[in-house]
Design a protein that fits this description.
The strands form four sheets. The protein has a seven-stranded parallel sheet with strand order 3-2-1-4-5-6-11, sandwiched between helices. The chain has helices spanning 11-20, 51-59, 73-78, 80-101, 133-148, 170-179, 197-210, 226-237, 267-273, 280-292, 295-300; strands spanning 2-6, 25-30, 40-43, 63-66, 104-110, 153-157, 159-160, 184-187, 191-192, 195-196, 214-218, 224-225, 244-247. The chain has eleven helices and 13 strands. It starts with a strand and ends in a 5-residue tail after the last helix.
Length: 305
């Protein structure tokens, strides 16, 4: 299968591409961050007019995994128009072109489309109520994709792993702070279901075999607070957990509003796949194994100088 991965320098895009090059033909789309990857790279700015036509004409993929987004919540608040174009408008345009050409498409969305006020877990049938620019534009992207291409698959995710810069995931934040002997804030009132990016990539490929479409939640099977996740990371890496300060997200200086409860049901996904979904615990083990094997350094070697 020939897979086109947009956002190939992002945490998910790069990890998925590196994992799947042995099993599939991978072509990544990147604007300027990558060099020397073991998979083919198409240099392109996804906001250029008609760019999706040019890319698909060149690559002729069997499927597209659209991971590209403006995913920094604070940047979205500061650049709402860029967030709208990249997170909402562009996915719909890409979905329409994929539909015209009979190309399977997967669009990566976020658990943040929910406002976090529900007592319990959110299912795919629950009505979203996004609180910030990032979440609002991602929800608009979901709707634009499915309107233009009803056969597309939209997955709402929350994941962690090693990134190109070493600064893009929550465990990297805790590791960088604690390794330097600095204090790190951990939110006690934000609950989520993190999934290791390697587990996420494997699941996403399996969804193609099942021919899934519509909206699916693809998160971990265990939920916990971001504070407790930080403690788990510290213990996994032998770092000083006492440096993690237990605070409320309401006390933070973050601009974008965060939802308190992002526990998502994965019943629909596990039923469709016929197998359980991993939790963060086994994911942290795999994350740590990658660290011991020098994977973070390997990731950084692909960074354009």
């Amino acid at each position: 299968m020939k897979i086109l991965v947009t956002g190939a320098s992002g945490l998910l895009g790069l990890n998925l591409s590196l994992m799947e090059i042995g099993a599939h033909s991978i072509v990544g789309v990147d604007r300027s961050k990558l060099a020397g990857t073991p998979f083919e790279i198409i240099k392109a700015d996804l906001l250029d007019p008609e760019v999706e036509h040019r890319i698909l004409d060149t690559v002729k993929p069997d499927t597209v995994i659209h991971t590209a987004a403006l995913a920094n919540l604070e940047a979205c608040e500061e650049q709402p128009e860029t967030a709208r174009l990249l997170n909402a408008e562009m996915p719909g345009e890409l979905a329409a072109v994929c539909a015209q050409r009979g190309i399977t498409m997967m669009h990566i969305s976020t658990d943040a489309v929910f406002d976090g006020t529900k007592d319990g877990v959110y299912t795919e049938e629950d009505a979203p109520n996004p609180q910030g620019i990032y979440a609002q534009t991602k929800l608009a992207g979901e709707r634009n994709v499915l309107s233009a291409n009803p056969g597309a698959l939209v997955v709402r995710v929350n994941f962690f792993g090693w990134s190109l810069s070493g600064t893009r995931s929550l465990p990297e934040f805790f590791i960088n702070k604690l390794s330097a002997g600095k204090k790190a804030q951990g939110f006690t009132d934000v609950f989520f279901c993190p999934l290791f990016v390697g587990d996420l990539a494997e699941i996403l490929i399996k969804t193609f075999a099942q021919g899934l479409s519509g909206i699916y939640h693809v998160v971990g099977s265990e939920s916990l607070s971001k504070h407790d996740f930080g403690i788990a990371v510290a213990r996994q890496f032998g770092l000083d957990e006492r440096l993690i300060e237990a605070v409320s997200v309401e006390e933070s200086t973050l601009i974008a509003r965060r939802s308190h409860n992002l526990r998502l049901s994965i019943h629909k996904l596990s039923t469709a796949l016929g197998e359980p979904v991993p939790g963060y615990s086994t994911g942290l083990d795999r994350f740590y194994t990658q660290y011991k094997q020098g994977y973070p350094q390997k990731m950084r070697s692909y960074q354009q100088v």
